[in-house]
Amino acid sequence: GRNDPDADAAPGRRQPDAGRARGDHPNGFEHELQKLYYDIASVALSAIPMAAVLKGIPKERLLLGSDIPFYTIERIATAVNKIDIPAADKRMLQRENALQLIPRLRR
User: What is the number of H-type helices and E-type strands within the chain?
Assistant: First the structure.
């Protein structure tokens, strides 16, 4: 019927639903989000969104991207320097996390 998410799917091509997704992620969706890396360039300029990111995402998973078209890298870097976190954490955001993710950048 219409309540079946697979009603319109091609044979053998079932669509995921919340029940099956939970089975694929026994530790939950939020746990899976903690495994991803996040670019902070778009939120670094605003204290409230940046605080939310720092609260919800491990600092080891945050990266400072330089290709965002909305602001210059200088403006973003200045904003990151003003974030009220320990200097070691700033280094993680600015460089160390990227080096962990892409070791060949250490050259």
Answer: 6, 2
- 8 A C-beta contact, residue 77 and residue 87: no
Give the H or E element holding residue 39: strand 38-39
Could you tell me the pLDDT band of residue 22, with boundaries at 50, 70 and 90?
A: low
Of 53, 64, 56, 51, give the one whose Cα is nearest residue 92: 64
CB atoms within 10 A of CB 97: 20
> Are the beta carbons of 25 and 34 closer than 8 angstroms?
no
Mean pLDDT computed over 69-74: 83
Does this model's pTM top 0.85? My answer is no
- For 26-39, b/e burial (b = at least 16 CB within 10 A) is eeeeeeeeeeeebe
